[in-house]
Amino acid sequence: xxxxxPITEIGTVRIGQVENKKAATGCTVFISENGMRAGVxxxxxxxxxxxxQLLNPMMAADMIHAVVLxxxxxxxxxxxxxxxxxxxxxxxxxxxxxxxxxxVVQSDLFDLTVGDPFVRPDEKMGYEAAKIAxxxxxxxxxxxxAGCGATVGxxxxxxxxxxxxxxxxxxxxxxxxxxxxxxxxxxxxxxxxNTGQKIAGLLSSxxxxxxxxxxxxxxxxxxxxxRFTNFVEDNETAGNGGNDGNNGNAGIAGNDGFAGNTTxxxxxxxxxxxxxxxxxxxxxxxxxxxxxxxxxxxxxxxxSIYTLSVGDVKADKDLVGTLAAxxxxxxxxxxxxxxxxxxxxxxxKEFC
Length: 352
What we know:
Elements (H helix, E strand, L loop, with lengths): L2 E3 L8 E7 L4 E18 L5 E3 L13 E7 L8 H12 L3 E2 L4 E2 L2 E5 L14 H13 L15 E2 L9 E2 L2 E8 L2 E8 L5 E3 L6 E3 L12 H26 L25 E8 L3 H18 E2 L9 E10 L3 H21 L10 H4 L1
Parallel strand pairs: 5-8, 15-17
Antiparallel strand pairs: 1-11, 2-3, 3-5, 3-17, 4-8, 6-7, 9-10, 11-12, 12-15, 13-14, 13-16
Helix pairs in contact: 1-2, 4-5
């Protein structure tokens, strides 16, 4: 039988979080002084990332030293420099003779429309988060770290979305331990993967109930077809061939440059796997996203999952991949349930 354990009780991984609550952004850093084998799978169409190519099984690096999840979109990728600086000072990294180069990968979500768009995770914030991870790990679920400015249900923009955050869930089965941390910042609606119940997402016009993001997308097809038909008929009557630059995708929900999303996750296990196997587990873990988020993996999301191996327990990769999807689903629920209403966006606590 499995039992729940804290995410902080898996191997040597330490987690530090820093957030700027006024600006609604932050970062979450995962560090292991012994290094970590790691894999990644990126399914969203708009990722903001740094050094993820290191995790390609064809690349030489066997270990990395830190993973950073951050806000700020691509602007926030500078946080990794601060993590590198701290690790170099501590003497951790790939030895190149004159110094040691810490290998740090990072992925960011888009939270610029929540607080101050000109304040983002930077080198100073990354350094502070790395220092906290080593000296006094402070992981908490809710409006912290990379989840500080997280929201969901943004198909119609920020007026009808809900506040979420960062969430975790971990289990132990015999010697095997596996858990996940998810910074939930999706375009789509969120569901409890156990029951199918919608727990967060696109709000109705009066903000007292939910709308279905998928149904809204479907309705926009008819709206756009009607607009195009009327447009052609009007312009054929006018004799100008119907080309005044206003056809195409005008009016389709979510198609006005709204790439302000991305759900990020880190799966951690004490099972021993190669980089190629960890990439496969990351791919299987995306099933947890698919069960809980709809729509998911869109061109307006940068959905990514890292998997870290920090132990030597022998386990079947397909079992661990299956469990990874489960802990991802539970961590998503936590990211919804532990979030507090903020920045004018209601959380599930308020909505219920």
